[in-house]
Design brief:
Blueprint: E1 2-8, H1 12-21, E2 27-30, E3 47-48, H2 57-68, H3 74-94, E4 100-101, E5 103-104, E6 106-107, E7 117-118, H4 124-138, E8 142-144, E9 148-155, E10 158-166, E11 169-180, H5 201-208, E12 213-214, E13 219-226, H6 238-241, E14 245-247, H7 267-281, E15 285-288, H8 294-300, H9 302-310, E16 320-329, E17 332-334, E18 346-348, E19 353-354, H10 367-383, H11 404-414, H12 421-431, H13 437-451, E20 475-478, E21 481-484
Parallel strand pairs: 1-2, 1-11, 2-8, 11-18, 17-19
Antiparallel strand pairs: 3-7, 4-5, 6-7, 9-10, 10-11, 12-17, 12-20, 13-16, 14-15, 15-16, 20-21
Helix pairs in contact: 1-4, 1-10, 2-3, 3-10, 5-13, 11-12, 12-13
Length: 485
């Protein structure tokens, strides 16, 4: 099979890119499961963009840099922020039902110095996903669901497509451009708000093809995953932006003991505080939404109130148990500002990629915008011309994969919210005994976490608990080893 552009993954980045570029090239989009399933679908909060008169790009940039803790790529941040409003307006023009009262109704989240979160109730991602899927499937894009990519066709630093498997049948898809849009790695952890497909497949594929990965140690843990067996439901940060409070088992607020900004501190700080408070008290911590007016909860957070009610929690009269949960990979496949990796013909956009815009921790609601902005930039780059087609022979890389549950347990225990040399080394030694793509990605994360002997952003080392100027750099890892630059 041949196509101009092969897109691997169907979240906001892959779908929006496919829509934009399909006007001028043939596009084939493959998804691991059905096209509606992605991290985007489960995003509750929204998209950050400058729309109010008392806001400006400089403030949004400053907020992003503050959270990124010293290692954001400032040029990438500028690109992200300055292109966010147009990207959000483009989604609005496609028919996404954002909350409005004439103009966008803007929400507030932690560290944002202004209200700038555009949302569709508390199911923003689902609304976006549905509109993009409808547009993609009604167009001329070839969509192949239930197709698992097993390897990238690469040779001498050049990519020429991929090998996929569907119902046991192998297919080779030759492409002039191959775009990774496979999302994150949350399901490598035993506690995550990500769907089951988020196991870092694209990262492993890129690494095997010779691409460089960047900042893999920076895993963002969302502070408020609903702590209920059998669910990975998230309680959006917008709740705290509207006044919800974190309390311990005695009903006492505790964030003031960890940071002066309390519930509105950066996510890594709040997640670590929840983790430490639970350890200190030997009991769960809770999110108290009773501080929010009932009509506001019902109107602005209908999915959350309905889910909690279904599980037996009365959010209008009692706090609900929460726990930090693996949420977002700030690192990924290293790209330039046009989405190019260091393998010719191989590109990456969305959570699988890393431009350096998020640094050591991502500012809330910058992720969906990241997928939109960099997918548009890649589409514009490829419109200038595609590489000449090249046929590369398949390399067999299939191997029996180790148990995912074993990897999840190791990662949560040793490469989670609080890390140290002993635990990281033990995890690395155990991972080396395992096989498969999941183990490869987990090993990359662990190796980078071992190499960064400091605490910065989402990466907290109890044995190196302060920031060190020597490490105010990005971590790079490829088949040749690890470096900082």
């Amino acid at each position: 099979m041949k196509t101009d552009i092969l897109v691997i993954g169907g979240g906001i980045a892959g779908l929006s890119f496919a829509l934009r570029v399909s006007k001028r090239a043939s596009v084939t989009l493959v998804t691991k499961t059905e096209v509606m399933e992605s991290n985007t679908r489960y995003a509750q909060g929204g998209l950050a963009g400058v729309f109010s008169e008392n806001d400006d790009f400089a403030l949004h940039v400053a907020d992003t840099l503050k959270v990124g803790d010293g290692i954001c790529n400032k040029e990438a941040v500028k690109v992200l922020v300055e292109n966010a409003p147009d990207s959000i307006t483009w989604l609005d023009s496609l028919g996404v039902a954002f909350d409005k009262n004439g103009s966008f109704h803007l929400g507030k989240e932690a560290v944002h110095s202004r209200r700038r979160i555009v949302h569709a109730g508390d199911s923003t991602g689902k609304s976006i996903q549905q509109v993009l899927v409808d547009r993609v499937t009604e167009g001329k894009i070839t969509v192949l669901e239930q197709h698992d990519v097993v390897s990238i066709l690469s040779e001498k630093g050049r990519c020429g497509g991929a090998v996929v498997v569907c119902d046991g049948e192998r297919k080779i898809i030759h492409a002039r451009a191959t775009v990774l849009a496979t999302g994150g790695i949350g399901n490598l952890y035993s506690r995550t708000c990500n769907p089951a497909i988020a196991t870092g497949d694209g990262i492993a594929l890129a690494y095997e093809a010779g691409a460089t990965l960047m900042d893999m140690e920076f895993i963002q843990f969302h502070p408020t995953g609903l702590l209920h067996k059998g669910t990975n439901f998230l309680l959006t940060e917008r709740l705290r932006g509207e006044g919800a409070l974190l309390v311990n088992a005695q009903g006492e607020r505790f964030m003031e003991h960890y940071h002066p900004e309390r519930e509105m501190a950066a996510r890594d700080i709040v997640a670590r505080a929840c983790f430490m408070e639970a350890q200190k008290t030997g009991a769960d911590v809770y999110l108290d939404m009773t501080t929010i007016a009932k009509d506001v909860l019902e109107k602005e957070f209908p999915a959350i109130t309905a889910k909690c009610t279904l599980l037996g929690y009365d959010v209008f009269s009692e706090p609900v148990p929460v726990s930090p949960t693996a949420h977002y990979l700030c690192g990924g496949v290293k790209i330039d500002l046009s989405g190019r990796t260091d393998v010719d013909g191989l590109y990456a956009i969305g959570e699988v990629s890393c431009s350096g815009a998020h640094g050591a921790d991502r500012l809330a609601s910058n992720s969906l915008v990241d997928g939109l902005v960099f997918s548009k930039r890649l589409a514009e780059h490829l419109e200038k011309g595609l590489l000449e087609p090249v046929e590369i022979e398949e390399t067999l890389l299939d191997e029996e994969s180790s148990s995912l549950s074993a990897i999840q347990a190791l990662m949560w225990e040793h490469v989670g919210i609080v890390r140290n040399q002993q635990g990281l080394q033990y995890c690395l030694d155990e991972l080396k005994k395992l096989t498969g793509r999941n183990a490869t990605v987990a090993e990359m994360i662990t190796r980078c976490a071992l190499a960064r002997e400091e605490s910065r952003g989402t990466h907290y080392r109890s044995d190196f608990s302060t920031k060190i100027d020597l490490f105010r750099k990005h971590t790079l890892i490829n088949k040749e080893g690890i470096s900082f630059e």
